[in-house]
Specification:
The protein contains 10 helices and 12 strands. It is an alpha/beta fold. The strands form 2 sheets. The protein has a 6-stranded mixed sheet with strand order 2-1-3-5-6-4. Strands 9-8-7-10-11-12 form a 6-stranded parallel sheet, sandwiched between helices. The structure holds NADP nicotinamide-adenine-dinucleotide phosphate.
């Protein structure tokens, strides 16, 4: 009798347009690892049963995306340190039959900052957004000894909540503010790095930017978590103003590379993953 096909998948809702299956399958195939990476779109009512199905012996692990990164925690057997601190999971690894939750978003983000040669130590960092992605990167940055982290959010209460959890668990100075043009005018001149952790600028509303370009100066760093389009209006305008800027595809691929290593124990082929993801975003739209 042949054993069932080994599988990894992404759990989300919706999940059909996720890029992870594209670049993870390319990485598995190139290293001749006989695992199929699938899309496990999961209605919120079915989350518990889908997690239970991961206990089947042929399932190696999973990625977790919106809206389940926090909701999935109670159904797992344990969490690694970063997932515990953030309170959210983006990767599940099967170890001795146990489902262990990890969070590789923070390390992926720090590596992406490394690509643009930004070092967070003693820097003032402005994060726009206070949702799930903001939370992961804020915790990662808080461990890098920045001078201060400013969190600007449309709903200020959410920024205050995130600031409180950061202050409770890390020694960082955190300033929560409302996201308005006036607060940007006040805080951008004092910032070394601006991060967009909102969905502003994402396709199909790719003409928008969270930051008026005139507020961006030479020598500031800009990282936009949005990766579709690859070059957002924010990234383009920042570069035009002489800033160093990057879009979110590097973070997406690097968090995926860490997940790949957790599942397979192998070094992920990052260049291939990046090339595959880039080609997929840039492909012409299909007709019909
Ligand atoms: P989320 O939890 O839903 O949070 C969304 C955030 O965007 C909130 O802070 C929300 O503010 C803000 N926002 C949305 N529309 C806005 C608008 N029109 N004006 C002002 N603020 C607005 O989503 P998330 O998971 O954090 O994702 C945020 C972005 O990061 C998305 O674009 C996602 O694709 C990207 N992301 C990228 C990576 C990567 O690897 N590159 C990983 C994860 C996420 P309120 O709280 O006021 O609603």
């Amino acid at each position: 009798m042949t054993s069932p096909e080994r599988k990894i998948g992404i759990i989300g809702y919706p999940a059909q347009h996720s890029l992870s299956p594209i670049f993870q399958q390319a990485a598995l195939d190139t290293l001749n690892i006989d695992i199929k990476y699938e899309i496990w779109e999961t209605h919120p009512d079915d989350l518990e049963s889908v997690v239970a199905s991961l206990r089947a012996p042929n399932i190696e692990g999973a990625n977790v995306t919106k809206p389940f990164k926090e909701k999935i925690v109670p159904f797992l057997d344990s969490l690694d340190l970063s997932a515990q601190q953030i309170g959210a999971v983006n990767t599940i690894v099967k170890s001795d039959g146990m489902l262990i939750g990890h969070n590789t978003d923070g390390i992926g983000f720090l590596e992406a900052l490394g690509d643009i040669l930004f070092t967070p130590q003693k820097k003032n960092i402005l994060i726009i957004g206070a949702g799930g992605a903001s939370r992961s990167i804020a915790f990662a940055l808080a461990h890098e000894n920045p001078s201060q982290i400013i969190i600007a959010n449309r709903d200020k209460d959410r920024a205050v909540n995130l600031a409180q959890s950061l202050i409770a668990t890390t020694p960082t100075t955190v300033v929560p503010i409302e996201f308005t043009t006036a607060t940007l005018q006040e805080w951008i001149p004092k910032s070394d790095l601006i991060i967009n952790a909102t969905s502003i600028g994402m396709r199909p509303a790719e003409d928008l930017s969270p930051v008026p370009s005139m507020l961006i100066r030479k020598n500031i760093f800009v990282y936009d978590l949005v990766y579709n389009p690859i070059e957002t209006v924010l990234v383009k305008s920042a570069r035009c103003r002489g800033a160093v800027a990057a879009g979110g595809l590097s973070m997406l691929v690097y968090q995926g590379a860490h997940a790949f290593t957790l599942w397979t124990g192998m070094i992920a082929p990052r260049d291939l993953m990046m090339r595959t993801a880039t080609a997929h975003i840039e492909r012409p739209p299909s007709i019909g």
